[in-house]
Amino acid sequence: MSNKQTVKSKACEKLKLLYNEALKSQKADDDQQALSYYNQALYQIESIDDATAEIDQIRYDIFLNICDVYIRQQDVTLANRFIDKALQMAYTLQQQEKTIQCLDKRGEIRRLQGDYDGALLDYNKCVEMKLLVNKDGGLDICESYNKIGKVYKKQGKHDNAVSMYEKSLDIYLSALSGNDLRIADTYSNIGEIRYAQGKYNDASFVFEKSLQIKLSAFDDNHPHLGGAYHDIGTVYYNLGRFDEAISMFEKAAKIRSSINHRSLAHTYLNMGNVYKAQGKYDDAVSMYEKSLQIKLPAFGESHSTIAHTYTVMGDAYNLQGKYNQAISIYNKTVQIYISTLGDNHPRLAHAYTFMGDVYHNQGKYNDALSFYEKALKIQLSTLDDNHPSIANTFISIGLVYAHQGKYDDSADMYEKSLKIRLAEFGDHHPSIATTYNSIGDLYNYQGKYDQAISMCERSLEIYRSVHGDNHPSIATTFNSLGSVYDHQGKYDDAISLYEKSLKIQLSALGDKHPSIATEYNNIAAVYANQRRYNKAISYYKQAATILVDAHLENHPNLASLYEDIAFCYDKQNRHDDATAMRERSNNIRRSLQQVDTNNQPSPNVIDQSQAPEDDVTADLSHQQIQSQQISTPNDNFSDNLGNNDDHSPTRQSHDQALKEKQYFNAYMQALQQGSCKNKVIRAMYSGPEYVGKSSIMRVFTQQQLLNLQDPTQIADQSDKMVHLKVYKIEDRTSSNLRQVYNDSVCQIVQQNYDNQINNRQISKLSQSFRDKHSSIDDQDQIAAVQSAIKNQQITATTLTSFRTEALPTSTADNNLFLQQCRDFFQHYYPSLLSKTADDSQYAKIWDFGGHSIYHVTHQPFLSSNSIYFLVFNINQNIHDRVITRDGHTLNITYLQSMQEWLISIISSNSNQEKITATINNDETEYSLPIVILIASHGDCIVNEQEGIDRFIEFERELRNKMPCYNSNIYTSRIIFNCNPDDNSDAILAEREECSLRLHEIMKSFVESLPFMCNPIPIRWYIMATILHTPIDSPDDKVVTSFINLIRDTRVRKIMTIQEIQSIAIDFGLYEGDDELTAMLSYLHDLGEIILCRQVDKYGIVVTDVDWLLRIFRAIIQLHSCPSGNFQIQSLYDEAGRTGKISTQYINYVLASYKLDNETKKSIINLMQTYDILCRIKSDNDDDDEDCNYFVPYLLRPDVESFDISEYYVSDILYIGYQYNHIPYIPDGIYYCLLSSCLKQWNNTKVELYYQCAKFYVTKSHHYIIIKKDNSHIALQYCYQKFDNPASAKMIKSTVKTSIRKDRPHDIVKDKLSSLINDRMPKFKGAKVHYYIRCKECNNLTLIDYARESQYGKLIPCQNKSCYKLFESETMDDWIYIDKEDKNDTYKKCFDIVASEMDRSSLFRLGMKLNLSHGDVDDIFNDRNTKTYQKAYKILLLWRNQAGQQANLNDIITILKEINKNAIAENIMTMLHLSSLSSY
């Protein structure tokens, strides 16, 4: 075994060891240790060269297991990231069962995220794939049905959920024994739905069936029994059978406590709910605390299950009248949900409704309404329109309106709720009864007593049919009816109903429940209305005793009871007793008021968009930022507050220090949450060489034209590859880009400062924070970061959080972090004292080099979020060849050059977004990116109409040649006169008029772009300031010494993503990986950096764009050959003659850049990534220091073409696209195709001339010739001629065998398709075809295997003006070469399948062959075609798409998979006989 193999073997052993340790840790619930081992294992995989399939399997398993860990931790963001990686590995491994596994897991993640439609999409894909494998699905499909049922349950689609569960149950019951646990679990699932539907008796029935199965399968202490007891306890609770519920929960708790199971916490929580229902609030809170004691160590403080426990605990406090404690704990709930689930999740809405309930109970109806409306907004955006939660919220809002006397609004809410509930549950659900009861109460308030009674009676009818006569819900309706009779003065009837209600409640709740106090209160009120005051006082006192005994001695309801008793005493003239009672009531209310004064949570405390002044309770522990406030700067200057001389030097210096400190606080807040509207867009001048782009740019930006400087020398002679100006869109004045970034930051900081001063939002640090950071002098500055979210108004789009890595972890780190932030703040502080708000927007204008050689280098620099000006010379005919500055004529026409530019700009962007822009009162829809067509050299056109006519002609020709780009191009018909020798008043006025027209056009587009409406965090502008390399601003006054220090010490021309991340962390600019990527993408769009994610492991960032372009130019453009060094002259000559360069050549041309090896390697990798160059590897060439590269762009146009006169040459086969799809294949794609073919064939014997390459195939001694023929790729092969017939026959046979076997035309076709998909994503998915030239009309016509077979060697031309048959050597040379020995075999095989295949199996056959659903569907549903023809078409379509990968063994395998074994056997027999006949 070689040393390399030994190292690999050891690495694999270590990998397996790490993987096994990770599995052990995961099974032991040690998530952190498991993640550590998994990450080490992944690192180990990266160190193993040539990973085997086994290692890929392990990699897949690791990704999936990490996903499971994060799911358990409910970190759905990270779980989603790793399931995507696992899914990608499943596709790579081509293992369907792993793909199903990943889709199943992703569905689970989406369910947890609340993305129920996405979850259903994944689960249904799993079902579809399972049915393809087994049409009945088998037992395995039940799992998918159950998961779909869970999603429907979450959506409130209960009937759909039951349907899924019953499908699963039917399969289980038919295939399994009656006591199988899967049947028990399905019963439990159905029970959960019946429970959710309020069908508690039905739920109890199926839960008990599930329990019976589990009792027969497990011993008495098995965890599954704990779950079964728990479920039944939950049903009993809802049936009002509280003691039985407690009994069940206690059984569940006993089992779960014996195994220390986390679910014990859930049981405690539900026991608390029962106690709460019984009015035993202290017992309830005790149970909730027990639940928290288990959950907090297991999940941490920021887990959603903690939030849920806080929610129910808050409800207990609410019922106790401890409203502030309830609000405080609900705030924790909300912050947890925002941090873990985002600000638009149904659980957050649920928390908002609970907060609304608290304020409702306090009589703070506006505050209650505010929270209910927040909840409703979330529910409407995240839930199905008929979801029960929405109905519940409508009821809550309606009740508030009723209490406010807004009866019509209340009725509207109740009606909406009733409509949803009727649609969801039918007309006999308890929730319908509840709604009727609420409507009855509303009618009661309005004095519509008959209607109220009618509604209450309808409610009673439903309740009785569902619950019987003794359910607490019946008591509620009796109370409502009693209230109506009381208002009507029918007191005896009212008391009768109240007493019926009391009897039910006593039976259900016992005589100590606070609800009994309500019953006594209602009866007492009727006696008071009857003036039977002794009776009334007696019942009032019984009610008060219950509240006191329930430890509700400070409840507002008790205060009200005391006041009611006082009223009765006054009526009896017992005024002293009345006064005593009122004093008791006042004491309670004073106590409540004191609590409110000391600790009054604002109703909007968790509203991130409208945080009030006293917003001091936000819990940000999940963001690793402690919930502390900024200390008031005055606190640190208390010794000087007695000095009343405002003009004293001491006072002024303190005022300055105070102001600076306040500004620094505002800056730290801005780092976290500040954002402004996007202010910058890139506008790029492009077009052919020497058309006047730079001159137009100077005119447009109000600069003087230069006589001595040729406008386009930028691209060919100067040190600059990009000419750049920053221009204010408002008034067209030039600006400094760093100043724009600087002003944007200052604007937000100033706003924060003004908010602090005007709203007095700065408060003291809490003592706990002082104690923790007592060694830090500037505690309030650190607190500015830590409490930023609390102290400002924060919108959902700007609310973000620091990641753990971004935070100081010690006092020393705090001090360093603080100092770095302060140093950076000092860069902005002088500007803050003098700046005013500026909302202007700016265009960063680029002038690219126009030479066609640069087209291949454009892709890394372009962006769909830019405006493009495409310039052409109005004095040239569009079909003329481009003329250089030196007067040389190039081999490319102006039309082709414009096509190259349009391809570079438009096709390289996948953005399919459209905008509507209004220009000259014409509202039109455009596709992105926008290209504005303008003309130069107007001075060469004497007649104005002639110029317009030429523009229209140019425009028409361009539209005809590039029809698919019409919606991207705006033709301005603006013609610039940029003659620097003509500066007459008339010409200057004409230039200004053209500039203004172009400016208005651009402004209209800019205002319509979504990109310009996006909020941009000011962190991004600060990072831009750090990374910005000025191109045209040599005297940049905005730059401070501190910025220069950062650039000198931290910024390199090429940086890794990790290096950028480190800078972001150090200066408080890091908000997580996703946000960092978004920041870098934005800076790439502006042209500040080049972001290359494909290079190296994590990607690289180029901070000096012009420097990179200069390097590209140095490598791919040849200048005059240097003198005095024969070796270097030889390298230059070889590069221009062959299109190949060596490492020595690269080292020479880059010598002046003084690049280190790592930088040089990154540049080469980047150029290879974009196919700008391609490494040529020979079998014995492993030396990176001495390798060759293929760079076809270097080839001189004057290189002579190949001499193939001594060769037999095949006819030409064309490869390309239909004209209406891709009308032109650019040079960049062609050159990349050559590089890609070189990678495929690794052929060092390649020869080039202009737009043509000749690859030598050594094993069969022939050449493959690949040419660019405008919009197609032309393919030929040639081989040596021999006079000897035997030799000629032998070489012909050898070559044709090679063509048949290796199918180079399919390789080129596939490579072209791949390049179009990658580099022209706008046309991703377009089909590439073969074409041949019609000998009758000389046009290309598309060929099709299936169509051609019926005519033999005669080809029907498909051009509308021809339609003639013609013979073609192309078919013999390329297409029929496959059919000489293969066609008969394939035909026989296809004939067997088509003859024996039944219609019902055709669709599955097509799907198994990986054909598109649409193609198979079209064939399958063609009523005019018989089954034989359909089957044959499907097989032909498969062969055409599979190309050289087509293998009849695949057909045999698939036939067996779809149970067509007899057909498979017949094909195998035919193939066997065919092989025998060949001997």
How far is the N terminus from the C terminus?
42 Å
DSSP helical segment count = 57
Strand percent estimate = 5-15%
C-alpha Rg (nearest Å): 40 Å
How many strands, what sense, and barrel or not for the largest sheet? 8 strands, antiparallel
Q: Helicity range of the residues?
A: 55-70%
Write down the overall geometry. globular
Low-confidence stretches: 597-654, 708-718, 760-811, 1345-1349, 1377-1382, 1475-1479
How many strand segments? 29
| pLDDT averaged over residues | 79
Overall structural class, as computed from helix and strand content, comes to: alpha+beta
Explain the overall architecture.
Helices cover 59% and strands 9% of the residues. It contains 57 helices and 29 strands. Strands 20, 21, 22, 23, 24, 25, 26 and 27 form an eight-stranded antiparallel sheet that branches. A seven-stranded mixed sheet has the order 4-3-5-2-6-11-12, sandwiched between helices. Helix 12 runs antiparallel to helix 13 and helix 29 crosses helix 31 (737-759).
